[in-house]
Amino acid sequence: MKKKNKQKSTKLAASDLQKIGFPAGKPLGTALNIIHTYYTDLGKNHQIELLQDVMAAPDQYQLHATLGPLAQAILARNETKPVDLKQERQEYKVYGAEGIQEGAFQQMEIAMCLPVTHAGALMPDAHQGYGLPIGGVLATLNAVIPYGVGVDIGCRMSMSIYDIHHGFLNKNREELKKMLMDNTRFGFTSFKKPMYHEVMDRHEFSEIPIVHELKDRAYQQLGTSGGGNHFVEFGTVEIQDANNEFGLPLGTYLSVLSHSGSRGLGANIAGYYTKVAMDVCRLPLEAKHLAWLDLDTEAGQEYWMAMNLAGDYASACHHQIHQRLSAALGTEPMATIENHHNFAWKEKDAKGREVIVHRKGATPAGKGVLGIIPGSMATPGFIVRGKGDPASLNSASHGAGRVMSRTQAQKTLSLPDVQKQLKKAGIEVIGSSLDEAPMVYKDIHKVMASQEDLVEIVGTFQPKIVRMNGDEKYMEVD
DNA sequence: ATGTCC
Question: What does the UniProt keyword field contain (predicted)?
Fold first, then answer.
């Protein structure tokens, strides 16, 4: 451990430059590149001194053979006018406030002071994130905030309902487990030969340089799920609404539910355009991750196209997951439901004005819009129909929301206890780990109760065989 | 969320 720190400290890092107040964004990135390309032989202290000299008098270094680009980046930044937050923040509606921690409110309040903010709302599963809280909904005017969309662009839910009686599940557990093992991939694993999908032919892959760089890995990761809270699971779904849109008779069916996003593609698009935004939109420190791109600029248009591509890519991954599992089951689904919950949409507000609605961990819930709100690996998820509550900006929660951080879960929970609870509930889990155990989430029933104005329940899903990222034997019971 | 500090 000590060795590692010592090694790290000899190489100039972003943190060293932040300490001396070096401007974040492009100047910092350029500085590191130049130092690590041309000045590796210089000691760290001398490297810092050199950069401080450029920072103090960038105009004198503009034409310097190696330091010129850095000087220009600093000058460009100095020319960018800082953006002030509004003194008075706009009001926003909160659902299920009693279950939301202070950090999420604070972040939402900063977001409500942005000069581009039009309206906002906080969902009952809200918790702290980067910039906008997870569970935050923010409508802006002609501006898109990359971290208002989130890192996993287009992350979504997808469900297939089969004309198979739910009793099939208990009789065929081993076969279904094998289907999940054969047809899903998590984390750093992928399929040997990914299945073709037309999303890979999209022009954005050749027209946007950053997106072009990400194409090969995106192809390799097609049809895969990621890590963290991503899952693919078999379960039962009980259709409770006789007037459901699918024309399904009331009853309980076999179903597949998946949760995942745009993998490396979306994550890298998010990271890249957040940096671009922070270069052109200089916000006070506490708001810096809310940097936005004006949609009338080239960068704004480019992000919008890249974001939409990442969303469609996430959708393609889900479709392939369900396509593979349907083939393994030897049948086609009777009904499918899909919704993203990390995205920005062009929508109209109540007065007909076009706004950019960011939903960062929030389910679209316009009147009559169907969506899926998952609970946890052991608790129910819900097929929901939006009621179109304007105060929520036509949104609802995207899950139960965490009550315990990942590190806290690893520290305080007991694996045998969790295994015992899963066994008792008749739920098998492949992979995953303690930081996704059911008790790290809020009570989904309470969360649903706090958003009765936002959605009505069409059906209830109960997970039975769950696959997540991690050692496949880890959560195994018996 | 992510081959996770440029």
Answer: GTP-binding, Ligase, Manganese, Metal-binding, Nucleotide-binding, RNA repair
